[in-house]
Design brief:
The protein is mainly alpha-helical. The chain contains 22 helices and 2 strands. The protein is globular and about 60 Å long.
């Protein structure tokens, strides 16, 4: 078994090095930059509008939180956000941030912010395209995602029919693998490891408990997943944010030093082992971007699959939820985690060196120790419970993504086979080698992002037109025909 794991590790390292090379990072951030420019910096120029119509609207617009009828397979805008956040606010916000700090130093956090800033518009574009190209399956449920805008969008260009179809299949295949990696193995593994460390619960016991809980939820389909996540996500997010804010105010005198370390580390101005400044910049940039993508998933084309199930009519309105999703995940939650660690005294702010625990055993333990500096022995237990909730919700969200990819490849009726496989891997993932689990997740992330980003870039003129159409109609109050769907009948129904 060890030999097989070693072989898989070597192959994965080779693929991972290729996938996460400079060209991939350029494609990832470059797509966000291009979409930001084409939409005239929508995430900044219309910040009041998208804030008012997303999180602000929860308290003033009943349609955002209103549940659909039992016969209607769509879910509310708030449920779609919670399910998407369930998949994005996960171990990446705790273990991922710690990994970025350990491997890339404080400067990695700056590059996580950059990924988030431009990733907002990548996520926005994915959701716009997801709503625009979605359709209903035989069960009356909305189906949308990168596979559909690759096949029907990119495929509609002259000479691109086969390319669009092939990329759609590749995306769906990589999504299946990613759902078992980022959405399953790495999540349940983190739960099992932390439950054993904090409460001495054997990993196999945690694995059995997770199998039962996951089974009870995912067999009920998206409606049940959304029902659970809309209750779980606000609770876990608010509880974690309160915990990190307590640390923030307890260490508020460290604000200047922490942010100075982040900016110095990002540009190689801090001391780097061996004096190799260029190497320090590369490590900070690479790990910041990798963990940024793992955390907010902008560019993967994942969350669009649940956003497309929303009962919203306007593509741009759902796109704005994508902006908020990235903002909440990375700018808020990841930043607070990073501050908790960097202000704790457990990390050398000049070199980025972890002053406690080994690199191999740090990760979530490092965050737990940071919390213990303020909360005492309760700190590691708090983090263990937070990881349990974050990771469990992530697994639920990704089970939907994987089932949609499976449905595209093998048909609606066969999705039960995927759910069975997902449940089996929940148990196996609970006892897998943690490093291998994270390495596999990085590789699957990159493979999944490639076809999706190609689709977003090729369809960027369409996103620009749809966004301009929305701004003209809704914000500037001009009398223009709406652009709501590529399908004339759906567009007509929605317009009415």
């Amino acid at each position: 078994m060890e030999g097989f794991v070693g072989f898989i590790t070597e192959v994965n390292d080779a693929v991972n090095g290729f996938v996460w090379g400079v060209p991939m990072l350029i494609l990832l951030v470059g797509t966000g930059i291009i979409m930001t420019i084409l939409t005239k910096f929508f995430q900044l120029s219309h910040i009041g509008h998208w804030w008012k119509n997303t999180i602000g609207g929860i308290f003033s617009d009943k349609h955002i939180t209103k549940h659909t009828d039992k016969e209607d397979k769509a879910i509310s805008q708030f449920q779609s956000l919670c399910t998407a956040l369930a998949a994005t606010i996960g171990t990446g916000n705790i273990v991922g941030v710690a990994s970025a700090l350990i491997s890339g130093g404080p400067g990695a956090i700056f590059w996580m912010w950059i990924v988030a800033l431009f990733g907002m518009m990548t996520n926005f574009s994915e959701n716009v395209l997801g709503i625009y190209y979605r359709r209903k399956n035989s069960g009356g449920e909305w189906c949308g995602g990168a596979m559909y805008y690759l096949k029907d969008g990119l495929g509609s260009y002259k000479g691109c029919k086969q390319i669009g179809a092939v990329l759609a299949v590749l995306f769906s295949s990589f999504c299946l693998l990613a759902s078992f990696g980022i959405g399953n193995i790495s999540q349940v593994n983190s739960i099992a490891t932390n439950m054993e460390a904090a409460f001495s619960v054997p990993t196999f016991v945690t694995g059995i408990a997770l199998v039962i809980l996951v089974t009870l939820v995912i067999v009920g389909g998206l409606k049940r997943i959304a029902s659970v996540t809309e209750k779980l996500v606000p609770f876990m997010a608010i509880a974690y944010i309160i915990g990190t804010l307590v640390i923030f105010f307890a260490n508020i005198d460290q604000v200047g030093a922490v942010f100075s370390a982040i900016f110095k580390g990002a540009f190689g101005l801090r001391a780097v082992g061996g004096g190799i400044v260029g190497s320090g910049i590369k490590m900070a940039l690479t790990w910041g971007m990798k963990r940024g993508v793992f955390s907010n998933e902008a560019g993967l084309g994942s969350s669009v699959m649940v956003h497309s199930n929303s009962n919203v009519r306007e593509p741009v309105r759902q796109g704005m939820w994508g902006i908020f999703e990235v903002f909440a995940d990375t700018i808020v939650v990841c930043t607070l985690t990073a501050f908790a660690v960097l202000s704790s005294g457990l990390v050398n702010l000049e070199t980025g060196e972890v002053l406690t625990a080994s690199v191999e055993s740090a990760d979530s333990a490092l965050v737990g120790q940071a919390f213990s500096t303020v909360f005492g022995s309760f700190g590691p237990m708090f983090i263990a419970v937070a990881i349990l909730l974050f990771a469990f919700s992530t697994a639920l969200g990704w089970s939907h993504y994987g089932s949609k990819a499976w449905e595209y490849l093998f048909g609606t009726k066969s999705t039960i086979a995927y759910k069975i496989a997902f449940i089996i891997i929940v148990y196996l993932g609970s006892t897998m080698n943690l490093k291998l689990a994270w390495d596999l997740s990085d590789t699957f992330n990159g493979l999944m992002a490639m076809p999706n980003l190609i689709g977003v870039l090729c369809l960027s003129p369409l996103v620009m037109r749809i966004t301009k159409n929305y701004v003209d109609r809704v914000i500037k109050k001009k009398d223009v025909e709406p652009m709501l769907s590529v399908f004339p009948d759906i567009n007509k129904d929605h317009a009415e």
